[in-house]
Amino acid sequence: MSPRIVVELADVSKRFPSGPLVLDRLSVEASAGDFISLIGPSGCGKSTLLRLIAGLTAPTTGQVAVECEAGADPLSSLAFVFQEPTLLPWLTVAANVEAPLRIRGVPAAQRAELSQHALELVKLSDKAAAYPRQLSGGQKMRVSLARALALSPRILLLDEPFGALDELTREHLNEELLAIRQQQAFTAFFVTHSVSEAVFLSNRILVLSANPGRIHTEVIVDLPYPRTAEVRQSRDYLDTVAQTSQLLRSIEQPAA
To answer: What gap in Å lies between CA 103 and CA 38, rounded to an integer?
Structure first.
C-alpha cells in the first residue's frame, strides 16, 4: 500500500511584490509520519516554504495541498512553532498554551485538560502557573511547543525553534520532540541551519540551493526510530552528518 500523501507542493514558485524570485518550480510530497528537515544557505526560501504550507502566504504559481478531515479547513490540521517563542507576557504558561484553543472556541474545561496534557508532554507541568519572565529560554520554547501540540496537529511546522539555545539544551529538546512524535504521530517540516540536528531528527532532508530556492538534493536518513542520545555516537549517524555537510558546503561555496 502506498503511503498517504498529506502535503503536496506541485511546481510552486514564489515571488514577493517588487522582489526577486524566492522559490522556483519546487515540488515536494510529504507522506503521513514523515519528518522532513529543510537545510540550505541563508535566503534559499526555507521559511517561505513553511509559510506556503501554513497558508500564511500564497504561491505565485503552482499548487499547495494539505490533507484535512472532510469539510474542515486545511489550516485546522496545522500548527506552527516559530523561531521566537512569542509568548504573551501577561498570561501564565497554562493560559499561553490555551490561547489558540480559546480562539478556536474550545470549552474551558477541555482547554484546561489539553493544556495540562501538552505541558506534561514537554515536561513543564510544574510551571503551569508561572509567567514567561520567570522561564529560561529553553523553557519558553517548550511552552511554544506545548501550545502547538495542544492543537493535536496532523502537521507540525517548525522554523528553527531551537536555534538560539545552547547545544546541550538543543539536543535534549530534539530528543523530547522525537519522543512526543512517537505519541502524537504528526508529520513534521523542520527548518534548521544545523546539519547534525537535521540528521538526528529526520527521515528525509531536503537540501535547498539559493537564488532562487530549488531542491538541490534529497538525503534519506536511514537510521531507525526511536532515536536516543546514543545514536549521535553511531557510525551511520556520523557518516550521514559528514556527507550532508559536504553536500551543503558544495552548494554554499561552488567551485570556481
So the answer is: 30
User: Contact at 8 Å (CB) between 214 and 182?
Assistant: no
Gap between the Cα atoms of 139 and 169, Å rounded = 10
Q: How far apart are CA 125 and CA 141, in angstroms?
A: 14
Q: List, in sequence order, every beta strand (DSSP E) within the chain.
A: 5-15, 21-31, 35-39, 61-66, 78-81, 155-159, 187-191, 204-209, 214-220
CA–CA separation, 231 and 198 (whole Å): 13
Residue 248: its H or E element: helix 235-252
Predicted pLDDT of residue 255: 47
Q: Are strands 35-39 and 5-15 parallel, antiparallel or unpaired?
A: unpaired
Separation of first and last alpha carbons in the chain: 46
Q: What is the pLDDT of residues 39-87, one digit of tens each?
A: 999 889 999 999 999 999 999 999 999 986 555 566 778 999 998 888 9
DSSP secondary structure letters along 144-208? HHHHHHTT--SEEEEESTTTTS-HHHHHHHHHHHHHHHHHH--EEEEE-S-HHHHHHH-SEEEEE
Predicted TM-score (pTM) of the model is: 0.93
Q: Please write the tens of the pLDDT for every residue from 149-203.
A: 999 899 999 999 998 888 998 899 999 999 999 988 899 999 999 999 999 999 9
Q: Which amino acid is at 167?
A: E
Domains with residue ranges and CATH for the chain? 5-67+154-252 (3.40.50.300), 85-152 (no CATH)
- Give kind and range of the element (H or E) at residue 102: helix 93-103
